[in-house]
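Exercise 7. Given the components listed, write out the predicted structure of the assembled complex. Treat all entries as one system.
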Amino acid sequence: MGHHPVEDSNTSSNRTFDSVVSARLSRRQLLKGSASAATIGVIGALGLSACGSSSSDSTPAQPGSGQPTTGTPRSLGFEAVPTSLEDRVRVPAGYRAEVLFAKGDPIEDGISEYLNNGTDVDFDRRSGDEHDGMWFFGISDTGQYDPNRSDRGILCINHENLEDNTLHETGVISAADNSGSRPKVQVDREMNGHGVSCIEVRRNNGEWQVVRSSPYNRRVTIFTEMDVKGPAAGSDLLRSKSSPQGTKRWGTMNNCASGYTPWGTYIAAEENWYAYFTKGDDAASRSADENTLVKRYGVGSAWAYREWDTIDSGSDVYARFDATAAGTDPLSDFRNEPNLHGYVTEIDPFRPAQRPRVRTAFGRFSHEGAWAAPAEAGKPLVFYMGDDSRGEYVYKYVSNANWDPAEASGGLTTGDKYLDDGKLYVAIFNDDGTGEWKELSYGINGLDESNPLFTFRNQGDVMIAARLAADHVGATKMDRPEWAAVHPTTREVYLTLTNGNQSNRPADETDAANPRAINANGHIIRWKEIDNNSAATSFTWDIFLFGSAADRDDDYNVSGLTADNEFSSPDGLFIDHRGLIWIQTDDGALRDTTNNQMLVAIPGSVGDGSRKTITTSGADGTASVDSLVGQDAGSIQLKRFFVGPSGCEITGIYLTPDARTLFVNVQHPGEGGTRELFNMDRSVWPASSRDATAFGEGGNRPRSATVVIYREDGGEIAV
Ligand code: FEO
Ligand code: CA
Ligand code: CA
Ligand code: CA
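Answer.
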């Protein structure tokens, strides 16, 4: 399901990010049908901010030396990997890539090896499908979280979705083809194929292995019971036949990207959860606010609906996927079930018997993930989040309590303190290059009973209807926010906008943030909080990088990409502890040139770029736009580090503290293949040897997998 429909339910009149920039860059000129571009003046309003020393000026590294570095390296010490359409992983010369944990791999001793023929039933004891967001939690010798450990840890991995063509023995059997009820064995496999894997991994004699006997190993699936916490817990909008008190929930699904906390817990975000529910025409049985809510969240679009409710089991765990208001009241049906989803969930990898906790204070939307700013003792904790649907918003959570490092071993109890009690903000990008965070709190900014969009009665309502609250405060519509990453020293925030336009952008809707009349390749923006205070309510921003094919003209290829770094549709994003930025792609537009990939660069900072006039022709005319763009791709040394096998997306990344091991996820190789051939006409990766750079053998159904990358000489990655 890599190319899922993009939910588009934001009908608010808030200006898009594009139009804000358009207004900010008021000298934008549109040259309908004209080839003669007027000269566009330099835009003073963009005001390059003086932002201190560049991180690349910090302590010199020793490129290629394999010695530990301190500070941000000055250069990257590898040859760029060429684009590739081969059905295997490509990494730079001198590097190895091995499959560590593939779909179906057992997580316990005594579980048989994966047959990979669609007959395995026990996915609650195996790796799920479609590896996505991921984090590594180092384990000390005494079993405590140790963020400095590089050779032993718990790897938590999201399993976003299913590659249907490879999952079952003979393909998906619909309810219609099975007397009105999906085969239970298929439904159980699908629900267990989702969720999260937590597995202990160790490096012994240079070799990484999953420790199948580890007591930490665990699968969280759609069957896993969870506690709902935070301001929405117990709300009448969360009460359901499956959850009469509104304080428990079955499982988690469509866990796209992720996050981590300073106390060593994992955050799994739910992205396209709404599409798993069916909903009949029940408007007459719902209140006006309820109807507003289902519409604003796309409930009933059902494009990922899997007919799980058709199982005649009598169990709510299946039945709840029909959210039709069919009963006499909310406790007799599942009309409120979608209100229980769309949050982030905290999982304690070190206490595998504990139920995960749903953190409603982070708001409800299509959570791509949640990315922590570096924790500082005595200051609030801050998390950044994107809502990945077209025209949606960027959010920030700020804890009310100040961080006390003494609480770093408290697990979910520490989470209760910092993640259930805080303020949610949404971003507004002002015309003058500044931005502000608008607070989404009950009783503030018009979020109360008299609100014209929704009757907000308390903070729980504001969280459940966070999109409507954000609409009301005038949040800026963004082009599908995916991952964020926070620089470890500058604290600047980078965020991928994967490609907001499923069809070509009309020329008269271009602007400095989206200046290309045909823009299929996405871009990355970044911002800097005032005074480097992550909890601040204002910031400055610019655009870091544009995706493009290398052979496009300068007006389109704004960042000057070359054969060594052309990319499209940035999605996964990570800034390692040395300050190197890693960009992962989920792309359909460059697929005739290369499989999906990962690149790395040495970023500068907000305002380090130059103004450019970009002139492009679209179907309805020519647009000429001035924009502020960060340094070009050559200046930040952007280089391709990794290319995946055919049909995959690259998503999920972690670099160990010693910088010698890189974990990367390969999601759904073979996507786009033929159902009857179980996608093997497109990919048979990975090889049974587990060398990720080898071609797979014929007859292998392709499998998503976590790949471990290291240098043959044991040195630091990428320098
Ligand atoms: Fe699951 Fe927005 O990517
Ligand atoms: Ca995908
Ligand atoms: Ca993503
Ligand atoms: Ca994506």
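Discussion: Residues 17-711 form one domain. The longest strand covers residues 195-204.
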